[in-house]
Amino acid sequence: SGIPWSRASLMRMITAKQQRAKRGGSVSDRGRPNITLTMEPPSSRPPGPEIPAGDPSLVVIVADPAWQKTIPGAERIARRAAHAVGMQGTIVLASDRLVRDLNWRHRGKNKPTNVLTYEDPAPEIVLAHGVVHAEASAQRRRPAHHLAHLVVHGALHLQGEDHEHPGDARRMEMLESRILHRIRVPNPWKRA
To answer: Alpha carbon of 8 to those of 45, 47, 59, 73, 135: distances in Å?
Structure first.
């Protein structure tokens, strides 16, 4: 059985270190994917300008209708955030159940996570509705802002960024903050 929107979800996930190794760097991990949940402080500014939906190099699929109920314009928000990073590929706004199944299949963890990224055969980001909404609520952030942040975060992972070490984490946080500022989403790392 396969995932109807992309073959990427069927491939084993790859870490940023492994991506760098493919490009000629070194890899010292044990082949385990590196996806970390993030917690951000509260935010209050609304999302910024719209990005046209006509870009064929970026596909946003709303696989779980709950996204449209709890985050009006979720597809537009995801597209705008991905565009700000220059991402090409697929973004899937999925259910917790689907993300849990993918997380089990590729990482051996039988629970949903906020975002999964896949590099091969094409870039893909898969987000879990319930997890994203619960994190936003727990952090007192607007769900739309948290969605934008996680799309940017996932897209940076696809570009080889990582947060395994403190210096890498700080650099990635700064990149996220600058990109989110351009689309008028508050800095998720700034303490209120």
So the answer is: 34, 29, 13, 25, 26
Can you say whether residue 73 is alpha, beta or left, with left for phi > 0 and alpha for psi between -120 and 50 degrees? left
Q: Which residue, chain included where needed, has tokens 């890498």?
A: 168
pLDDT in tens, 119-164: 988 999 999 999 999 999 999 999 999 999 999 999 999 999 999 9
- Indicate the SS3 state at residue 111: coil
CA distances from 4 to 10, 28, 79, 92 (A): 10, 34, 20, 11
Preceding amide of 112 cis, omega within 30: no
**Closest among 71, 183, 55 to 135, alpha carbons compared:** 71
